[in-house]
Amino acid sequence: MITLYDFDTGLPGRAWSPYSWRVRFALDIKDIKHKTEWVQYADIERRLQELDIPPSQNLPDGTPRYTVPAIHDSSTGAKVSDSYDIIKYLDQTYPDTPQIIVDSQDEFLQSALRRDWGLVRDLMLPTGLVLGHIALSSMEGESRLKYQRSYEKAFKATNGQHASEAEPSNTHWKQAGESYGRADAWLTRAEQLSGGPWALGASPTWPDIVLVSSSIALFITAVGEEGEEWQNVLQWNEGRWLRLWSRIKPYSRVY
């Protein structure tokens, strides 16, 4: 049994971290039995230290940084943090399951196989601007304050408000639409090269799950499939995002 550590919210879909979504999709694609232990946002560092889970990175001054996702695999005793490292661990430890981080000989597709892919950031930032105020409103107490401080490092204040409290403007929606358009163009080209229906061919791999985790999975989490914001996205790119969500939805179970 694998325990996935993720931070809790009051959102309809509960799971808001795009990085945790990557691991959740990978576990479901691999059909590996797992459960989620929900941690309050303000308690992430304390809880992971209690569990002796290694930090996801060390800051330039040497300070360890603890973030979700993290996992504990009771069958091997392994404790791993950072979404990329976790998925590499799952691929290596469970080689008979579908592999997520795979190679490609095509130069265009290789760009998407890196740990840090620019197109993902291009999606995550406008998605956060459109939905961040909803996520913040679902939190309480110290977790809300700590999340807001983290959010404000990534997003500028607008119209005298904290970005995390501001309703999205038409400009934010325009930026989101443009970013999703660039992702649609990349996916279209990738599917042409690989034969589809996924970015690298017949099954979902790293490019698919990181794009979905940084975009439409967050819309579903924040507002649900009937939400007005999600309905807006469905109008973009000739139905691309509904088709993609329909394909990956079976792997979005939250345990």
TrEMBL record:
<feature type="domain" description="GST N-terminal">
    <location>
        <begin position="7"/>
        <end position="98"/>
    </location>
</feature>
<protein>
    <recommendedName>
        <fullName>GST N-terminal domain-containing protein</fullName>
    </recommendedName>
</protein>
<dbReference type="InterPro" id="IPR004045">
    <property type="entry name" value="Glutathione_S-Trfase_N"/>
</dbReference>
<dbReference type="Pfam" id="PF22041">
    <property type="entry name" value="GST_C_7"/>
</dbReference>
<dbReference type="InterPro" id="IPR054416">
    <property type="entry name" value="GST_UstS-like_C"/>
</dbReference>
<dbReference type="Pfam" id="PF13409">
    <property type="entry name" value="GST_N_2"/>
</dbReference>
<dbReference type="InterPro" id="IPR036249">
    <property type="entry name" value="Thioredoxin-like_sf"/>
</dbReference>
